[in-house]
Write a structure and sequence with these properties.
Layout lengths: L5 E5 L3 H12 L3 E6 L7 H4 L3 E2 L12 H10 L5 E3 L4 H13 L3 H16 L1 H12 L5 E2 L3 E5 L2 H16 L5 E4 H7 L9 E5 L3 E3 L2 H14 L3 E4 L2 E6 L5 E5 L3 E3 L2 E4 L5 H7 L7 E10 L10 E3 L4 E6 L2 E10 L8 H14 L9 E9 L6 E4 L6 E5 L5 H16 L20
Parallel strand pairs: 1-2, 1-14, 2-10, 4-18, 6-16, 14-21
Antiparallel strand pairs: 3-9, 5-9, 6-8, 7-8, 11-12, 12-13, 15-18, 15-19, 16-17, 17-18, 20-21
Helix pairs in contact: 1-9, 1-12, 6-9, 6-12
Length: 417
């Protein structure tokens, strides 16, 4: 659109809210639609981390050899529901195909491109909303129980260094100097000093959404039934209460995006990778910044409301009930590294990450309908990449050249695969 028009953003998680905010800054009349209140999906329960230094994708060389251990060792984070295995097999085949060294380097470059602009894109939104205190840039520490486990991770850390990311290797004693609550089983650490975290991911989304409304944006709590193209060629959003006509639509419904995309003629390999968290109000220990227990893939994040323990990559149906044993497991694993941890009264949560086989989001117009834009598939990086996604979506809707090379994230990239 060369002139401001009406834009509907479907999905009020962190990605959708950032898209709405940036579109509003371009002068558009923006309507943000979601069946729930802003931030009540994955934005509510994620680890709170801005892992801007994590450029390596989830699928790296040698991944095929690691899968049996990931599936059979109960201490490992991967779980695939038996009922979903056949349906997800094409997704995993694509996932492993992306582990070739040359392809990994391409994906890492695309991930770094988004991460390098993450804070620059988010800072103006935080400043406008008076929410700077919700973001802390105190780094992120990854800890290891053995030299062997540290060496298994070296491929990813060396790749980050090649993109200019600051990565500092330290020993166990230095890790405990940074985080005295850590136990003696921590033998090695890797510090990413430029990573950050939010002390309350739900409140972050809520504050940004409130500022969007204060500036004239419209929030609609409605269930979206379909997104379609009307006879006049413009997109429409049908909800349980009404039909919204628009000049452009942005689809940002995370793991729920696949059926809307398919109805628009773009079937994408999007999996619901479910994560769990335990929230402990009075943990009895204190951390300065997020700590990842790398041997367990469990993240410990200090937040306003206590300590959040997140983990698990569970591939299951979107509507499958949570398995509370998984939350109990990551809480026990956290206790193995934090000897003083108390988990009495912890609360449990589960939510699905929208994961693609190449660890990259889908950003840009749909192949068939150039007035409908995709902004989903951010997997573990939704917080970090939300604002930069919103910025480039607003640029495209305005008819301006995007400030990033969006070829790696184009919605039709899986069609020829």
């Amino acid at each position: 659109m060369e002139a401001p028009g009406k834009v509907i953003v479907v999905g009020a998680g962190i990605v959708g809210v950032c898209c709405a905010a940036y579109l509003q800054r371009q002068g558009h009349d923006v309507v943000l639609v979601d069946r729930g209140a802003p931030g009540e999906g994955c934005s509510l329960g994620n680890s709170g981390g801005f892992g801007v230094g994590l450029v390596a994708p989830l699928s790296t060389p040698g991944q095929l050899l690691r899968i049996p251990r990931l599936l059979l060792d109960p201490r490992q984070p991967l779980s695939v529901a038996p009922s979903q295995f056949v349906r997800l097999l094409p997704w995993f085949i694509r996932f492993l195909a992306n582990s070739r060294p040359g392809r990994v380097a391409e994906i890492a470059a695309a991930r770094h491109q988004l991460s390098a602009q993450a804070f620059n894109a988010l800072d103006p939104l935080l400043e406008d909303a008076g929410a700077q205190s919700l973001l802390r840039r105190d780094g992120m520490l990854f800890v290891y129980e053995s030299r062997r486990s540290l060496e298994r991770a070296r491929y990813a850390w060396d790749m980050a260094r090649r993109f200019g990311v600051k990565v500092h290797e330290i020993d166990g004693a230095e890790a405990r100097d940074l985080e005295p609550a850590l136990g003696p089983n921590v033998r090695h650490g890797v510090l990413f000093p430029d990573n950050g975290h939010t002390v309350n991911p739900l409140r972050l989304v809520q504050v940004l959404a409130r500022r969007f409304a204060e500036r004239g944006g419209k929030l609609r709590h409605e269930t979206v039934v379909s997104i379609r193209i009307a006879d006049d060629g413009k997109p429409q959003v049908d909800t349980n209460t009404q039909t919204h006509a628009a000049d452009a639509v942005v689809l940002a419904t995370g793991a729920w995006s696949r059926r809307f995309a398919a109805a628009l003629g773009c079937d994408v390999p999007l999996a619901a990778e479910r994560g769990y968290h335990a929230m402990v109000a009075s943990p009895g220990v204190a951390l300065r910044a997020p700590v990842t227990l790398s041997d367990r893939n469990v993240v410990l994040t200090p937040m306003e409301e206590g300590l959040r323990i997140t983990g698990i990559s569970e591939f299951a149906a979107l509507d499958a009930p949570p398995n509370e044993e998984r939350t109990d497991r990551i809480a026990r694993q956290a206790g193995e590294f934090l000897p003083g941890l108390r988990t009495t009264g912890m609360t449990r949560w589960m939510g699905p990450r929208p994961s693609t086989p190449d660890s990259l989001p889908l950003i840009g117009p749909t192949p068939r309908h150039r007035s409908v834009y995709f902004a989903f598939g951010h997997s573990h990086m939704g917080l970090a990449w939300a604002a930069v996604t919103g910025k480039v979506i607003a640029e495209m809707v305005a008819g301006r050249p995007p400030s990033l090379d969006l070829a790696p994230y184009r919605p039709d990239r899986f069609r020829a695969a």
